[in-house]
Amino acid sequence: MASLLDPTARGRVILVGAGPGDPGLLTVRAVEALKSADIVVHDGLIDPRVLDLAPAAAQRISVAKRRSRHTLSQEAINALIVAHVKTGAIVVRLKGGDPFIFGRGGEEVEAVRAAGLPVEVIPGVSAALGCAAEAMLPLTHRDHSSAVSFVAGQCKGLTDQDWSGLAGKGRTLVIYMGVATANEIADKLMRDGVAPDMPVAVLERGTLSGSRAIKTLLADLGSMVDREKVASPAIIVVGEVVDLSDAQDKLGRWARISESVA
């Protein structure tokens, strides 16, 4: 694989994890990649200060995706990347968080390799790690959690999936893209055996301006999301470790909800 520091290496793709939002969480290697770019194909929530790290002459192409509203299909994004690389360009595919954690990075790597083109992946700080750190929420803890799982809250066949064993005593569950389906997620977890009084935190806009970390109990998750008007980007953390965090129960309902679901 050609070195990022080799200015003569042309016609390649670099998938770069941009982290959860704060430009300070970029890796050194990610910055090097951006500075080498001819074209930056980027997600919609990338901070402009991150895009500014690419050369001024580099073309910037947004392929922003929102729930039910995609600028381009994934197949079209793959084709766009391949077409530009075939011209000899260094294409940086800049993705929020980490490319291989719910970022469809695997699909893009497959497409580039199928075209016989070189590709490199630079990991990024995932949303779970960055947002949890900001909220002082340890995803694992020797006394409270020895396992952590990541799931997508928006996917086909959500209600048919078996999440039993992913959350509960001694385990932490992190749910990406779960705000819009918070009610269904809470109902599903309780049907799969998670206690209604299990602590839950919602980490909204983590590492970005206006970030919030709020908590409640599992039985109240959907209602809290509605009351607090939580909006994406946000992740949901389920587990005892939530009690160790700085997440706030803004309405002072913690004790009353605990009593009601006991």
From TrEMBL:
SUPFAM superfamilies named in the record: Tetrapyrrole methylase
Top-level EC class as recorded in UniProt: transferase
Name this protein carries in UniProt: uroporphyrinogen-III C-methyltransferase
EC number: 2.1.1.107
Family that this chain belongs to: Belongs to the precorrin methyltransferase family.
Domain Tetrapyrrole methylase: 12-221
Recorded name of the encoding gene: cobA
GO biological process, one term: methylation
Pathway membership, UniProt: Porphyrin-containing compound metabolism; siroheme biosynthesis; precorrin-2 from uroporphyrinogen III: step 1/1
Annotated keywords: Methyltransferase, Porphyrin biosynthesis, S-adenosyl-L-methionine, Transferase
Source species: Sphingomonas oligophenolica
PROSITE patterns noted in UniProt: SUMT_1 (PS00839), SUMT_2 (PS00840)
GO MF annotation terms: uroporphyrin-III C-methyltransferase activity
